[in-house]
Prior knowledge:
Layout: H1 14-26, H2 41-57, E1 62-65, E2 69-78, E3 83-92, E4 100-106, E5 112-115, E6 118-119, E7 130-138, E8 146-156, E9 161-162, E10 165-169, E11 172-173, E12 182-190
Antiparallel strand pairs: 1-2, 1-10, 2-3, 3-7, 4-5, 4-6, 4-8, 8-9, 8-12, 11-12
Amino acid sequence: MRVEDHNAKGPTDPLTALKEVHELLSAHPGFDVVPVRVSSGPARKTSLLGLAIRRFRLRKFGAEFDGGLTLLHFRLRWETTHTLALELQWHATHIGDGLSVFIHFVDAADAILFQGDYPLENEAPDSLGFFYSRRHVEVPKETPAGKYRVRLGLWRPAENSHVELRSFRGCLQDPAAWCRNAVVLDSVEISEDRT
């Protein structure tokens, strides 16, 4: 008879661990192995539904980037006198490793005055492929009064490269020569009397 140390560390290989669990349970008289057939039907339909919704929504507004990421909604509002709230809705067929969103607030001379970049690594799309981001951007006190364009794109910081913008609707392609892979989504007015 073999004596098991139940406090011992189990196997690190998941298949070996599963095999051990199967052996333990098979000794139980009521244990039956039931074959499981993996069905791709419901998951495939959900994915197709998400793609259909994305395609429909893109008819009004959106920015589609290489690799299966599409921005479908953007809203900007003041939350406090120094804080902007940004709401974004995305659709993803795949989120690649090391991707980040850049959000630049640029003046008429294309100078970046402040920004609200964030990584996509912790985003988890729902069953239809959608995910939502709510970001807060602090406007530095030294930012001069004026009107600023809101520029958005995707990039890979480790490679210092932009993700190609494939198509857009309801927004403009950023005219900056250094980045033809970004869109201008909105503008924001910074007033003199911020306290």
